[in-house]
Amino acid sequence: MKRMFFIPFVAALVGGGVVVALVAAFGGFDNSGNSVTTIQAAPVAPSNASQVRVGLTPHQVYVRTAPGVAFVTSTIVQKSESPFNLFGGGETQRQGQATGSGIAIDSNGTILTNYHVVANAVKVTVSFAKGKSVEAQVIGKDPSNDLAVLRIRPDGLTLHPLTLGDSSGVQVGDPVYAIGNPFDLERTLTTGVISALQRQIQAPNGFTINNVLQTDAPINPGNSGGPLLDAAGRVIGINSQIETGSSGGGSVGIGFAVPINTAKSEITQLEKGGTVRGAYLGLTSLTIDGSLSALNLPVKSGALVQSVQRGTAAAKAGIKGGTINSTTESGQIAVGGDIIVSVDGKQVTSSEDLANDISTKKAGQTVTIGLLRASGSGFYE
Fold first, then answer.
1. Which residue among 22, 104, 265, 374 has the highest number of C-beta atoms inside a 10 angstrom radius?
2. Does 146 qualify as catalytic in the annotation?
3. CB-CB contact of 51 with 169 (8 Å)
4. Other Cβ atoms closer than 10 A to 136
């Protein structure tokens, strides 16, 4: 619950708008190997909402799809300041490994996985059979949706590409199967159902990934990048994160998969190489709802700007963040900043709305932000 003490609202608010030229998302992801659990997804035959939902047994799904699930190993070199250098400037290098899963999507050696599985890697290897690994090249990445495409030389390998399904027809209660490599245990099958739709999770670079599938099929570290399969063995999601609760790093029955339709929309671009970068506004905001009613804000919904990053599109457009920190039961909140109420004329009712609207734009595109701004000394003491 968000609460804060205040004095009556006395500053006048003026309506207005600013034109913002969006910039590309920057930054990457610090792949520590233990912050996100990735689960791999395999391509499955095209599907649509009219397809029959009667499917295969879990064993049949496993036999059909497991050969197309890869074990992905990333070698990472981390640099740190040497504690033995009394005069500074010395660095030590430490090499480690992060493991995850991947999905063979064609017979040419193209592998789909999570970006955080291979982020900052100096070497990536892929294996489909124990003891037989080949080096892989990261040819495309999208940190904003936690996706990456790898390429291996298929010479001498018999690849089993999975068929990518259609995540738009998924319903709560549908049976699903996850195949991956949790805790280095190769090709593990877990079963469950779709427990919720349209969830949001945070991407490696801080962006919001939308329309995420939630499942109770157990997924754990090492499942990242692997497939979430429907009852017909079609890939409907790429297992990416888990909710661990407060007890540790294992699964508590709440896992999240990036919808396969998100990946399908950009696989062609990723296969051509480079980095897919989403539009980036450059601010943080807080949803205005009933929990902030004590603030006497002029609107009952919208996005209250908390901070604006220097040099970003939001900063160049003159959007202002909060200037006064107020301690609440849920932590500190910055008050006195602009309230964003629309993007290109479309109403913004929450921070999620703002993130969703910006995520549909392209880097370099110009948008109009409608906002309310406090004049005078500010909202509060």
1. 104
2. yes
3. yes
4. 26
Q: What is the per-residue DSSP string for 338-380? A: -EEEEETTEE--SHHHHHHHHHTS-TT-EEEEEEEEE-TT-S-
Bridge partner residues of 101 (DSSP)? 71
CA–CA separation, 207 and 190 (whole Å): 29
DSSP state, residue 146: T
Told to judge if 155 belongs to the known catalytic residues of this protein, a careful annotator would answer: no
Q: What is the pLDDT of residues 185-240, one digit of tens each?
A: 888 999 999 999 988 888 888 777 888 999 999 988 889 999 999 999 999 999 99
Q: What is the pTM of this model?
A: 0.65
Q: Can you read off the two tokens belonging to residue 136?
A: 């892989």
212 CB contacts (<8 Å, ≥6 apart)?
A: 198, 199, 200, 201, 240, 256, 257, 258, 259
Q: Is 160 a catalytic residue?
A: no
How confident is the model over 156-170, as a mean pLDDT?
91
Percent of the chain at pLDDT > 70 equals 76
Catalytic residue among 74, 101, 116, 353: 116
* C-alpha R_g of the chain: 23
Per-residue pLDDT tens over the stretch 140-149: 999 989 999 9
Q: Cα–Cα distance between 342 and 18 in angstroms, integer?
A: 10
In 181-244, DSSP assigns E strands to 188-202, 208-215, 227-229, 235-242
Terminal C-alpha separation, the chain: 22
Measured CA to CA, the distance from residue 21 to residue 290 in angstroms comes to 32
Hey, what amino acid is at 9?
Answer: F
Identified catalytic residue from 47, 101, 146, 285 = 146
Q: Which two structure tokens, joined as six digits, stand for 255?
A: 């896992």
Q: Among 195, 224, 326, 351, which one carries the catalytic annotation? A: 224
Q: For position 15, what pLDDT does the model report? A: 57
